[in-house]
Every structure is written in structure tokens, then in C-alpha cells.
């Protein structure tokens, strides 16, 4: 069947029994038609891509735009924004070439595999310090608060050069940006506050550069406004994502004891385990693009002006791409997953995220081999942009 069905919004409803599986109604759509028509809350009829090949093709094709103001905004609960404003200055995900290329070029050299690997030793120290503090505080802590959030927070602050004395205030704003219990307005206010704070750093970084990424960027041709915007965006993009991957990744391993044992006993399995967790959890559930011209994908024509929602979680569980897709198998070679996106907007911080997770996850598993969930786990609502954990109470 191809494109005859019109689904009403992105199918929701978590699978029963497993908090990590995509909604069965979503995978059923994928299995009927990997690219299907979808009605949006504002009445627009666009598309929903759920097959791995289709999602990857659209992500890799610049005839599809990332400019927010061209999208029909699809998520339930967000209907109050039928028209999205353009991306704030410095938010490079919301730009197309050539504006996007300018920012991307400036940043690419700063996030190389080699440079991120150099951070690996520092990462081991940071996670060791957090584990010491956790051991002192527990047993009986919230893993998100005690470990999964502080580890990437320290790393992103150090990478960008947020002074130590400012970190508590900075982290308060950063946490509010992605707090699912706050209103959209409160989150926007927090983003503004973070931006004001980053702007306040600009003169000092320009005048007396220190050894950090923000100082590096201050030496470029970016305006003060662009520098503050980009700094804010990087701080926001690198924190909530990695924190939730660490917390949700730990929870997934705890629910799959044989996989926990592999990470505990086989240090060389860590890199593959992280890749598989990225595929299996796909915490950035959904992407969106708008067609700039008529484009044929998988035998169907997406017309100029139509919005396509890309279900990353359905794509990463596509049986046409991955064998036994719903099984967490940390020994699998999960190459080709789209958990970090694909194409020109593919995650810039992916090497940093990989280093963080490859060090921090096994360090936790080995320090507390008997880690267990105690009490009720609270997960984020599935329509949230980044899926993850609100609370993960653990003891050992
Ligand atoms: C873009 C996921 C960590 C910085 C993206 C995209 C995804 C993603 C899916 C593509 C968005 C799109 O196509 O529209 C993740 C996940 C992470 C993570 C799951 C953690 C496990 C990080 C870190 C940083 C970072 C640590 C570092 C600051 C960025 C930036 C972009 C981006 C700057 C925009 C790239 C562009 O538009 O050219 N990320 N990310 N991310 N990510 Fe990450």
C-alpha cells in the first residue's frame, strides 16, 4: 500500500510493558507504508516518514528545508503555535545553506574525533568525581540528579569555558529550558536568561581569550549577537540530550541484565554498546523538514511546501535495516542508525557525546555492579522533543 492512508498526526501511545519501544500504532503505519500522508493539527496534509531508507534519504537531501518558519508544526499539545517563528540567532538547526554552512564551517574543526578523544581522560576524572559523590550520598539517589546530569554539565561548561563560579546559575537556566513540567513560556524565559548570561561572557572572551571553544569562536568574524546565540545553542544542545541518554541508557541496561553484564565485563564492548543504545532508544524521536521543491522519495512525490515529519524511532527499529530491531543487543554493529540525524545537520557534538557515554556508562556499571531501581521511575511524556527520564531512583 502506498500513500492512500492519511494518518491523523504522529501515532502515539507507548507500547505496553516496554517504555523504550515506539508506539505499536506507529510501527504498524511504517510496516504498511514507510512514507504516508499525515494530517497536521492546522489542517495541512503533509507526510510521515517511518522507514529507515526514506528517513535517511530526506535527511540527506537539501531540497528539504530545516527552516522552522516553513514547517507546519505537528506535535500534539503544541497546536497553539501553528506558525513557528524563524530560528533564534545562533540556532543552526533552523537554518539552510548558505547561512547554515557559515556556522557549521566555523564549528566543524572544533569538534573533531581527535579533539574529543583528548577529552576522554578528563571525562574519566569527572565521572569518577561524580561517582565518589554519589557513593557518599547514597545508597538511594536519583541517578539523573546525582550522575547523568552533572557529568555532561561539567564537560560542556569546561569545553565552552563557563567560569566555575557561574556554573550553578547557568545550570539552573539550562535545566529549566528542558523541564517538561514548565510551560512553553517559562522555558522560553529560561532560554532568554541563558542567552543573556552567555552574552555577558562575550566581552571577556574577546578581550582575554582562554583555552576553550567559546574563546576560539570569539576570534572569528561572528557578531556579538551571533556569538551569544551560538554559545547558548551549544550549551543547550549538548546537555539535555546527553543527560537523558545516560539516564535512559542505564535504565535500559538495568532492564536487560544480560546486556548490563556485557558492559560490566567487557570493556571493549563499550563503544558498540553506546551505538546500540543510540539506535534502540532514539531519544530525539522526531525530525521535521519542509520540501522546497517537488521531490521523489521511495516512488512518491512530496510537493513543494509540504511538511514531512521524520520518525527517527520508527526508522531505527525498521526490520528492513536492522535484524531483530526491537532487541537491545549491545554486541550488534548498529552502524547506520539515524539517532544523531544524517546529512548536513547531523549532530555536531556526536563525537563528544560518544566519548562522554563510552566513559561514563561503563564507569557507573563497574562502580555499582549491583545497581538497582528502587521506587517509581518517572519518564518524560513521549511527545517531548527529547525523550528521557524525569526521575530514576537507584540504590546499590
Ligand atoms: C544536531 C542528537 C549531543 C550539538 C543534532 C541532531 C540530532 C542530535 C538528532 C540533528 C537535528 C536535525 O537534523 O535537525 C543528539 C543526541 C545527543 C547529542 C541524541 C546525545 C547523546 C550533542 C552534544 C552537542 C551537540 C554533546 C555539543 C554541543 C549539536 C548541534 C547540532 C546538533 C550544534 C546542530 C547541527 C546542525 O544543525 O548543523 N543532535 N545530540 N549535540 N547537535 Fe546533537
TrEMBL record:
Keyword Heme annotated: yes
Keyword Metal-binding listed: yes
InterPro entries: Cyt_P450, Cyt_P450_B, Cyt_P450_CS, Cyt_P450_sf
Highest taxon of source: Bacteria
Chain spans, region Disordered: 1-23
Record's keyword terms, sorted: Heme, Iron, Metal-binding, Monooxygenase, Oxidoreductase
CDD domains: CYP105-like
Stretch forming the signal peptide: none
Gene3D superfamilies: Cytochrome P450
The family this protein is said to belong to: Belongs to the cytochrome P450 family.
Protein name (Swiss-Prot/TrEMBL): Cytochrome P450
